[in-house]
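Notes continue from the previous slide.

Worked example: a multi-chain complex. Inputs as given:
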Amino acid sequence: MSELAWDEYQRRLREEDAIVFVPVGAVEQHGYHLPLGTDWMMARYMARRVAAKVGGVVAEPIAYGATSQIRTGGGPHRCGTTSLNAETLIALLHDVLVGIGRHGARKIAVIDSHFENRFFLDEACHRAQDTLALRGHEARILKMLYAERINPETMAAVYRGMGDPPGLDLEHGGVLETAMMLYCHPELVDMSRMVDEARPDFPPYDVYPVNPDWVPASGCLSSGRTATREIGELLVEEFVGHVTDAVRSEFR
Amino acid sequence: MSELAWDEYQRRLREEDAIVFVPVGAVEQHGYHLPLGTDWMMARYMARRVAAKVGGVVAEPIAYGATSQIRTGGGPHRCGTTSLNAETLIALLHDVLVGIGRHGARKIAVIDSHFENRFFLDEACHRAQDTLALRGHEARILKMLYAERINPETMAAVYRGMGDPPGLDLEHGGVLETAMMLYCHPELVDMSRMVDEARPDFPPYDVYPVNPDWVPASGCLSSGRTATREIGELLVEEFVGHVTDAVRSEFR
Amino acid sequence: MSELAWDEYQRRLREEDAIVFVPVGAVEQHGYHLPLGTDWMMARYMARRVAAKVGGVVAEPIAYGATSQIRTGGGPHRCGTTSLNAETLIALLHDVLVGIGRHGARKIAVIDSHFENRFFLDEACHRAQDTLALRGHEARILKMLYAERINPETMAAVYRGMGDPPGLDLEHGGVLETAMMLYCHPELVDMSRMVDEARPDFPPYDVYPVNPDWVPASGCLSSGRTATREIGELLVEEFVGHVTDAVRSEFR
Amino acid sequence: MSELAWDEYQRRLREEDAIVFVPVGAVEQHGYHLPLGTDWMMARYMARRVAAKVGGVVAEPIAYGATSQIRTGGGPHRCGTTSLNAETLIALLHDVLVGIGRHGARKIAVIDSHFENRFFLDEACHRAQDTLALRGHEARILKMLYAERINPETMAAVYRGMGDPPGLDLEHGGVLETAMMLYCHPELVDMSRMVDEARPDFPPYDVYPVNPDWVPASGCLSSGRTATREIGELLVEEFVGHVTDAVRSEFR
Amino acid sequence: MSELAWDEYQRRLREEDAIVFVPVGAVEQHGYHLPLGTDWMMARYMARRVAAKVGGVVAEPIAYGATSQIRTGGGPHRCGTTSLNAETLIALLHDVLVGIGRHGARKIAVIDSHFENRFFLDEACHRAQDTLALRGHEARILKMLYAERINPETMAAVYRGMGDPPGLDLEHGGVLETAMMLYCHPELVDMSRMVDEARPDFPPYDVYPVNPDWVPASGCLSSGRTATREIGELLVEEFVGHVTDAVRSEFR
Amino acid sequence: MSELAWDEYQRRLREEDAIVFVPVGAVEQHGYHLPLGTDWMMARYMARRVAAKVGGVVAEPIAYGATSQIRTGGGPHRCGTTSLNAETLIALLHDVLVGIGRHGARKIAVIDSHFENRFFLDEACHRAQDTLALRGHEARILKMLYAERINPETMAAVYRGMGDPPGLDLEHGGVLETAMMLYCHPELVDMSRMVDEARPDFPPYDVYPVNPDWVPASGCLSSGRTATREIGELLVEEFVGHVTDAVRSEFR
């Protein structure tokens, strides 16, 4: 979208009824070997791939996301993790969706890559749809965490040979994200900086103020040592398929 | 707390350094056989049980919670599901926590029972701690979804004899909640009104406006037919134990 | 409402055009002899009594209310008085009213018991009605401080034998509230803990920060010594009558 | 304040520790014979009179106030009644108080003339004091409805000869305000346009949307027919005395 | 508007389709020789003059404006400069415009005199128009900085004889404002207190916290020494003409 | 910043006291020949160039900016112009600045490229500095519209040979932006799609709702026909110099 002139964008909306993709991510630590922009870059990558398949337009990503939680993303205290307050994130996505919808987009797909964003994005989508409907705009909004569903065979392949796989709950800066970045943005991954640390043993609750000792020094919740470009390809192509199916299914 | 005179409450805080429990739930449909207040009642029950063990005080519950999502709670469109906007819920819990903390409580435990509340409560706890700290109050806040962790043996017992257990994702108005309510509030459960419907087959995304056809007519995402008081007891006592362990561990 | 299944609640709204009652109170000190929850308990009591007469449904109370003022409720500094910011209270009642109204309730009665809530509730009702009307819902909202009107004969009976009655301005934790609680929730009143103190002599203004010396040590603005269950019955039954008349008159 | 150069204002604050008065009123209908600005003009008049006595500075009035309620000010639907949302009024007074306090004013007096403003101003004062204290400013804030207290002899004089005085609850556009305006701003009163109507018989509750039939056609809740400049003088001079006493007492 | 009775105001709106003028200014330092209220007084003056020509009504001014910036108004740190937060100013003007528009005004003219208000007023006008349109009101809003356009000949006359005119960017408390105040409010100008200082040499950026050293001691960004009543008349009459043309052109 | 691992980012802040640059732009129509992302791309370009010179880190841009105004950017109604509400933009920049500042950045430079952002960014910077200072962080924030100052000789070169140069007020999608994009992002400029239209003759005011007829069909306020890569280089290098001087001067 940023690279289109306005009239071309208008033509895509009016003549093609094009889907507008809005990637949402985060600026969040992902250990020593992955960049701070891992989340929003992956969201943008997914949106671009799927848009190319279905003929959509990709809006500029919402790069900053919801506050990182200690048990899912290492917490807000770690240097570089730069998050938005809940109200800000909701308002930001709301305004962007309304801006897109009031110019005539009738199919909008929000592609999320940051677990903590979940309910804030739901709130923004819900409210934007209401704002638009009140003013006579008919936009429908689809919202999807691109990695929400993984085939069991894929998981088996990802964890092949690991005696003790960490499980999805500890996949922050671990095998999955490392592998996907090796496939999509290999120049931003530095496998030589990866360290192997004991996985955290989180209790089933949170405390405020956060206790930095809960998280390994690197910020990763599990090791990405076994990640390869091939695993990344497997995952990414599967996710591209899931998102493509979703938008095709909902937007005909 | 509501039943104490203020000076007795003050004594508990100052002399006993008592933990103040804040239950947070929802007013949300749970099928034909469970009441709308299932969530907040269970949160309050848990808080009371644990407070009795550790000598704490239970504040009045926050009964209304975050917007019900269609894939986890049946959605906001269903009659009776009465939710708060994100900003309202955050502000509400924030203000209550600040009110408790500025009067001298140094240990506050937020007990959540509604999945969709998660990140909103995190935001409120985070911010309340900041508000209090800026003004010289030292409160520490623990936040826990009471059912966050379940022992595998318990799950096996819950699903014993079921060829095709629904899994936790579809446990809305299903075996777990039904069983727990049979144990804690049996007078509010009407097993005769339960219906057996095909479980929904949710896609891995959400759409706005919501599509009511995604959810079975009853609003339950799986059947609670096999629920018994005994299963409820098993679950509830385990959860009481987890929450008790949590507050004892964090608040010494 | 919390005890109903959603379809029963829906039936009440659609077939009976039932009135939904929303009690609003406060968590506020009421001296040594009355509990912190006095206000919201009385609001809930009134709503239940009237709902039983007119066939309505009582929603979960909004237990936390507006900031206690020093000259009407003893002030926000007293331990246990746990209040909401103005914006929070307005948003909370607004969201609850909108949640009720958009599911089809056309008659909603807000029953208030906390003097300081007054204009915040007006704002919330006004705005919720607007929010609903914009979206095609026809709810009408009635808002009433249950004790707004008292017959002179009742007041004479309440103050019988007192040479120097305090007047309604000082009736915080005094004869009226004590008597009503003796009637409605006697198990929560401890007459033995009541102390007699000089009534405060408030100036006709407020100062910020508040001056704690303005209020007697107990937090009561007048003595409830002469309260009896009979006086409570007199008051409560009169108020039940006033609220019943109000909803019958407005909602036919 | 508006007429002072900044350095003179600074001198007054630093050398004289001058009290800064902030009048708050409303733009609200007051019948056919009084102007829409009655409230804020009276607040400003009071502030000026008292400032002249005690050597203070009068800030520009906050002319627009809280939403007029039907039973106290005739309601928001009447043409010309131009009010602020609750959050706006709170933020407006907050910002003005903080602006004054952070430049060194240590004594600030908010003079209110509009009944519906009450709790919103409390909230703003409370919060502004907190905002200032957090940043090291020591301002104390006094807030007063200038007409909060009236001597019984004065009331007797005001109502002399009336068989059936309306009472303070119906004194909107009635004898009191008419008389005070005849004394303070006689050029804005047109006694020839006054009409005598039956006083409204308000129920003890409010409904939303408001019912315009509750209020007499003129918008006055009682007649100001018997108002005279002499009555106005009596009232105004008494109120000037009360406000003067208040600020002298609190600010030494 | 403040001096009209409500029915007269209503008649003006309904029968004359009168333009309602809303002046917006600031309370901001203007050196030693001009009063803090210079901005809002000039906005009100302009509105009154134009309203008299076109038969409009002038609403009470919004006296407090947006935060003064150091390079245009001397900055927020200077004693007496009393500003509103952005959200407050937007909400304030929004509410006032909506209040005016929902009572039937179809032509509203916002007259601004404070440079920093610009985009906040745009936002408020934009949103108020939306709020009104959603509810069926047709108000059109014109917003104008009264001094936005100056004829080159006028500027030549203003700066006649000055070897090195400061330019409009430094005209804060300088020749233009001084001259206009000498013409409109001469009793509030004290030419004897004016000092001549070196003009500031601002860099093309801002820093936070502000650096007070950037601004001359007086707070003026250039000298008003050469200001005369005649120059003021020239400017004011030209601006009155521009604003009159604007409202006539847009509102027929 | 997005491409750094967190510990490298931390090292840059702690050991090098690195300046963090935050580009802020807009998604706004710029005629048929320039892309919607022109503003934020130029802001990012400037930040990157200057950061390379002074050794700073560039944070992810804030791509969406303040509502486009009709007289400066063609207005909000044009398809593709996707803007944020004022409160959203302020909160967004505030949160990002606070996120950066609380992790230890002491030098933050906000680089703006969208005229309408101006006062919103001031507000955000002002408030973020306050938020950080209250919590003990010492960040200083510099905010600069990169094109705020242009040397007269440069302007002469830009307009060389034009009999009637448009002036900076009409430079939206005109010679300046076209030339700079030809230099910085030539692949996104399509000179063949440029059309020559009569320049708009804006009145000195705004109206709401906006009148689309005020703006030429292309959305450009003047023609970029004479733009060349050489002119772009001249402008860009000058601006790079100004921004570099600014940050060197303020941050030593």
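Summary box: The first strand of chain F starts at residue 20 and ends at 24. The domain at 6-251 of chain F is CATH 3.40.50.10310 (Rossmann fold).
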